[in-house]
Specification:
With about 425 residues, this protein is mainly α. It has 21 helices and 2 strands. The longest helix has 16 residues. It is globular, with a radius of gyration of 22 Å.
Length: about 425
């Protein structure tokens, strides 16, 4: 594995040559919040709306950014980069196949495809970038770091949208490994060229905060807030980061100030989300109740979780069930409903719900659903089934520390 110091030097070299492109959306997946203890002293996990601290159970891959051999979430620069790269080498067969596997969450297959691409001398920048994304999906952040560094080294000497995108992935790999200082340097290099890069300020604040430099982190959070003055998600994400770092009251002040300044322009859903994070669950319920029949999955999840916080587990389950009855199947809602049922000790029902979610196939929630299905099997006494599923799970997600602990527990279980 190449050293982080080399990576930072490469980034600086490439970014100093050009300042084009725009940072795609943050790749951090919603934080996994523990909600039900499993038989192995671990817990089923449920995604919330936040993008705060993450653990090995979630995946730092946004499918909207990896539909092809380039990011699709940037500006026109991204599109031109994409066509340029395709024209440069029209025989990137294995790269394209690898990205399709990433879309399908077949990360191990994607790794093999990208490695074949490199052996066949396909576009190295794209192949290494794809390999890094696949390793991120597997939770192998050290190898992801190496792959992203190699991708940047094989760039054509200009800071295209693709190069910026890859460096954001590289910084994410650093963050996942606790290399916060290295991630900070990446974000600083980007900010040095793009002074109004809101997300870079926010992400650098997160990296600085995790190094226990609160006052400096606040300066970057406030710069991000100034650049995204109407961004509700930004301020709630910042609150989650501050809360995780032990600065809950300071984070609450930002939420309260935002609510006060923007109250007239916020819709009920936004007010409900902020109220939820402020632990004002009664007002969150009032603001969000109208979303029970709407298509907004994230706000409906927050509504369900609000009822859970209020102790009304039965109605929380109804919220999720009503959505599934009137909409297309949704993996996030299946996961939330399953966790809610687990919390009510309705393990057989939860097991069936998790099975339905897994049966949907590729989704942002597939890993969580698979893990929670194993836990549900434990609680229903199906230990042999749980053991078999765990072995399959670990083949797909070999670096999931929580699953490894659960596997040790399962070795002691007998039906």
């Amino acid at each position: 594995m190449q050293s982080a110091r080399v990576g930072i030097a490469v980034l600086g070299m490439v970014l100093m040559m050009c300042s084009c492109g725009k940072k795609p959306e943050d790749t951090g997946k919603p934080d996994s919040t523990k909600s039900t203890e499993s038989a192995g002293d671990t817990e089923t996990t449920e995604n919330t709306e936040t993008t705060g601290n993450t653990d090995a159970a979630d995946i730092t891959v946004d499918p909207d950014r990896i539909n092809d051999t380039d990011s699709t979430a940037g500006t026109e620069d991204t599109k031109s980069t994409k066509s340029t790269k395709s024209a440069k080498n029209t025989k990137n067969t294995n790269v394209l196949a690898g990205m399709e596997m990433v879309e399908q969450y077949n990360f191990q297959g994607a790794v093999e495809s990208f490695e074949t691409a490199l052996l066949n001398n396909e576009d190295k920048e794209l192949a290494y970038r794809g390999l890094g994304i696949a390793y991120m999906g597997l939770g192998d952040y050290a190898d992801a770091e190496t792959a992203f560094l190699n991708s940047v080294r094989n760039a054509e000497g200009t800071a295209t949208a693709l190069v910026y995108d890859t460096n954001y992935y590289l910084a994410s790999a650093y963050m996942k490994q606790g290399k916060y200082a290295d991630a900070e340097k990446i974000y600083s290099a980007i900010i040095g060229l793009k002074k109004k890069e809101k997300d870079a300020y926010y992400l650098r604040a997160c990296a600085i905060l995790r190094q226990n430099r609160y006052d400096e982190a606040v300066l970057d959070f406030e710069k991000a807030f100034a650049l995204g003055s109407d961004d509700v998600e930004l301020v709630t994400d910042a609150f989650v980061e501050m809360q995780a770092a032990g600065y809950t009251e300071q984070g609450r002040k930002y939420l309260e100030e935002f609510m006060k300044k923007k109250e007239k322009s916020l819709d009920n859903g936004e007010k409900g989300v902020i109220s939820y994070y402020l632990e004002d669950y009664e007002n969150a319920r009032i603001y969000l109740d109208s979303y029970v029949n709407e298509d907004d999955v994230q706000r409906l999840q927050i509504l369900g979780q609000t009822y859970e916080k209020l102790g009304d587990m039965n109605y929380a389950a109804v919220v999720y069930q009503k959505y599934l009855e009137s909409h297309e199947p949704n993996a996030a809602i299946y996961n939330s409903l399953g966790v809610c049922l687990m919390n009510q000790q309705k393990y057989d029902e939860a097991l069936a719900v998790f099975e339905s979610g897994v049966a949907m196939g590729a989704s942002d929630y597939l890993q969580e659903l698979k893990f929670n299905l194993i836990v549900a099997n434990e609680y229903t006494g199906n230990f042999e089934q749980a053991k078999a599923m765990m072995q399959e799970y670990l083949q797909t997600y070999p670096d999931d520390a929580q699953a490894k602990r659960e596997n040790e527990f399962l070795k002691t279980c007998h039906e």
